[in-house]
Amino acid sequence: MTDHSLRLPAEWEPQSAVLIAWPHADTDWAERLASVETTYVALAAAVTRFQSLIIVVADEVLRVHVEGLLAGAGVDLSKLRCITLPYDDTWLRDSGPITLKGGARGFQLTDFRFTGWGGKFGAEQDDALVAGLVEAGVFGHAAHKRIDWALEGGGIESDGSGSILTTWRCLVQRHPEQSREEMSAILRDGLHADRVLWLDYGYLEGDDTDAHIDTLARFAPDDRIVFQACDDAGDPHHEELQRMAGELAALRTVDGRPYRLHPLPWPRPIIDEGRRLAASYANYLIVNGAVLVPAYDDPADAEAARIIGAAHPGREIVQVPCRPLIWQNGSLHCITMQLPAGLA
């Protein structure tokens, strides 16, 4: 039986803060640091309109730089908290804590092993990030549980009610020796979930996460799923994403009903130095009272924002320019981790 004293909240539940790490010259952003900082400033300005923002910085020099940038952009610095810790990169969706709610201490910081997306990149400092944040006192008296099994936060979606959505392509790459049944059991146990829903199809060219679910399909309130579609029959993604759409249509809620599906428009291909970049509108971030939606300077931006707003009624929609982010193969959701209300 699942232990229901703990559960993984849905992203649309109340939050205390959003956690990010600021890019600097010793990260992979060095070559285009000024450009990507414009996205981080826009993100910080948007988040702090609605709630607090915790920024991990590498040192005191970076802290002063960040606070100066944000003050110059009119950001309310009283909504900021900077924590100094070492990190390899800034994808905190994958190296940050997966927070379960409940239990004797109110929260459990579930700290899965982070391997740099299956050993593609060095990740020793990022793998120690959750422990460092705990030691710094960011999370009060929340319990900290280390699980020696590779999983990234971008690889799972929770509806807050015991259902987890994930992709086979990602997790079989991380754990080729394990069966789907074995992995489902580990996910149910580690995340205190009732069931795991798997997608076999769906990917984005240029995505080095091996098809994280948060680039493809997202749970939304009232049994909705928002997903990245492709209506261009000449695009190499078309067949794969059509098959994924079919899988989503076949999924059923706990009480046996189909999900309410919201397909997102397909942006034009973005090519950089001969390489196609992974632009996904599904990679949005929910905060208190709003949804922050990636914008790629594309004609489809407005329609994507409208559809995401329809799937999250009652929330303000704020577009954040994310074209600089996809140079490193991620977007808005990938660089953030929400923290449930009461945790920080």
TrEMBL record:
Keyword Membrane attached: no
Domain of life, source organism: Bacteria
Alphabetical GO biological process terms: putrescine biosynthetic process
- List, alphabetically, the InterPro entries matched: Peptidyl-Arg-deiminase_porph
| GO molecular function terms listed in the Swiss-Prot or TrEMBL record | agmatine deiminase activity; protein-arginine deiminase activity
Q: Which PANTHER family match?
A: AGMATINE DEIMINASE-RELATED (PTHR31377)
According to UniProt, the name of this protein is Peptidylarginine deiminase-like protein
Q: What is the protein's species of origin?
A: Rhodanobacter spathiphylli B39
Which lineage do the record's taxonomy fields give for this organism? Bacteria, Pseudomonadati, Pseudomonadota, Gammaproteobacteria, Lysobacterales
